[in-house]
Write a structure and sequence with these properties.
alpha/beta; six-stranded mixed beta sheet; 30% helix; 20 strands; single chain
Length: 460
């Protein structure tokens, strides 16, 4: 019986292994395969010269390469390790021929010896996952934070203890073919996202349900009571169900009402703290804490909950305050790669910010965002592949007034940042919250946020 990651890697000896994706997240997996003496082919769309130096160095360890536009064609392997960003349908032909298809995260769930809390959703995953990890650490537990956040955990699984916690942010891509059974599953919300990869919204929602649909009655599932998809998901849940809700009470879980956060057990509310005691701004962050509180209720005491909420300063690229220059405050919200995330960001400010938006086209509608921009934005600076689509959504909205909302269409990201800085006046807020992925101009949202930070901190 294979009981550990080490045993599994040894069991592959003599088999042909292919790893799809040469990103940093797959480096530990490739290392494990090589350490066990396995033959490894790395497949990636990028040409060799564009791979990072650390990846190219794998050639010295005997890695074979299949690179370029045809990287998924004629892959000669018995086992394929799928990168999370690749939809399983692209590997269906290999599965039909008997090739084993798996992934780093699927293997982690298979061999993880400790308790697991898994978080998914369209918005708020990273902040909620980080808050849960902080709450558990503050209570004294050993916590391993990973998945779609932090670093890959597979290489560390054999050293984890049963009393530890693994807190895992999981994307729809990771979940699509997974059969995970976390001790606690949490769905923050569902809204159109990644429709450039998923064939339709139904496929996206179905992938998300894999986080909880195999749980048993001893596990816990946490849902957003106010999310429109929750009634559709509830019949699939077999675990104990808890809810979180901002503005409405719940039967079990966590809720807020009139500025007070409550823990709720069998309909009985117990006051925990005021919402304005949460250090990071925004109503969406109140929801993130409510979700986290519902997930760890019974594991973390109330004083620890209060302490973490009052001290947690947030995660980089999530309405991250950068600086105040000549009375103008600059915020980095690069994580906002969907319209709902940008809407949440806009609702975090009492002022109407100057908004920098636009980016890679994920084929998501911008209609609701257009209305919100008209209602909540002082000036709009657009760039990237979706600039025209966002412009049309804004100008076609029922509340559009050209005199109230100047719109600037700039050549690229840097030009939009310069534009926003040039029109900002004392007392203004400049918010970079793109509502789109970064791939048209940057490798990922982190690179976009880091570049924005450099531009802003470099201004004089």
């Amino acid at each position: 019986m294979i009981l550990s990651v080490h045993d599994y890697m040894q069991s592959l000896r003599g088999k042909r292994c292919a790893v799809i994706g040469a990103g940093v997240s797959n480096l530990p997996l490739i290392g494990l395969l090589l350490d066990a003496g396995n033959a490894v082919t790395v497949c990636d769309k990028q040409p060799y010269e564009k791979l990072s130096e650390s990846v190219r160095a794998l050639s010295e360890r005997g890695v074979q390469w299949k690179l370029g536009e045809q990287y998924l064609e004629n892959v000669d392997a018995d086992v394929i390790f799928r990168t999370p960003g690749l939809h399983p349908m692209h590997l269906r032909a290999y599965a039909n021929k008997g090739c084993q298809i798996t992934s780093e995260m699927e293997l982690f769930f298979r061999f993880c010896p400790c308790r697991t809390i898994a978080i998914t959703g369209s918005d708020g995953k990273t902040t909620t996952s980080t808050v849960i990890a902080e709450l558990l650490r503050a209570q004294g537990y050993t916590v391993h934070l990973g998945g779609n956040i932090g670093h890959p955990l597979l290489a560390e699984a054999d050293d984890m203890k049963p009393e530890d916690f693994a807190v895992l942010e999981l994307s729809s891509f990771q979940l699509h073919s997974m059969e995970c059974v976390p001790d606690v599953a949490l769905v923050t919300n569902l809204s159109p996202n990644h429709l450039d990869v998923h064939p339709d919204m139904a496929d996206y929602v179905d992938a998300k349900t894999n986080i909880f649909r195999r749980q048993g009655s001893a596990a816990k599932t946490v849902f957003n009571a106010k999310d429109g998809y929750t009634p559709e998901l509830l019949p699939l849940a077999k675990a104990q169900v808890k809810f979180f809700s901002r503005g409405d009470t719940v039967e079990n879980g966590a809720c807020s009402h009139d500025g007070i956060i409550y823990l709720v057990h069998n309909g009985q509310r117990e006051e925990l703290m005021r919402t304005d005691e949460i250090r990071i701004p925004g109503e969406h962050n109140v929801e993130n804490f409510l979700a986290a509180f519902a997930a760890v209720d019974g594991l973390v005491d109330k004083e620890t909950m209060r302490s973490v909420a009052r001290s947690f300063s947030g995660v980089a690229h999530r309405i991250e305050f950068l600086r105040e220059l000549r009375g103008v405050r600059y915020y980095n919200d690069s994580i906002a790669s969907s319209p709902t995330r940008t809407i949440a960001g806009l609702r975090s400010f009492a002022e109407k910010p100057i908004l920098i938006a636009g980016g890679y086209d994920k084929h998501i509608p911008f209609d609701e965002l257009g209305f919100e921009i008209n209602a909540r934005v002082k000036a709009l600076c657009l760039n990237g592949a979706t600039a025209q689509k966002i412009y049309e959504a804004v100008t076609k909205a029922s509340n559009y007034c050209a005199q109230n909302l100047p719109i600037y269409m700039d050549e690229n990201f840097d030009a939009s940042v310069a534009r926003a800085a040039s029109i900002a006046e004392h007392g203004d807020v400049v918010l970079m919250s793109p509502a789109c992925a970064a791939f048209d101009q940057f490798k990922n949202f982190e690179k976009r946020g880091d570049h924005f930070r450099e531009l802003i901190l470099g201004m004089e």
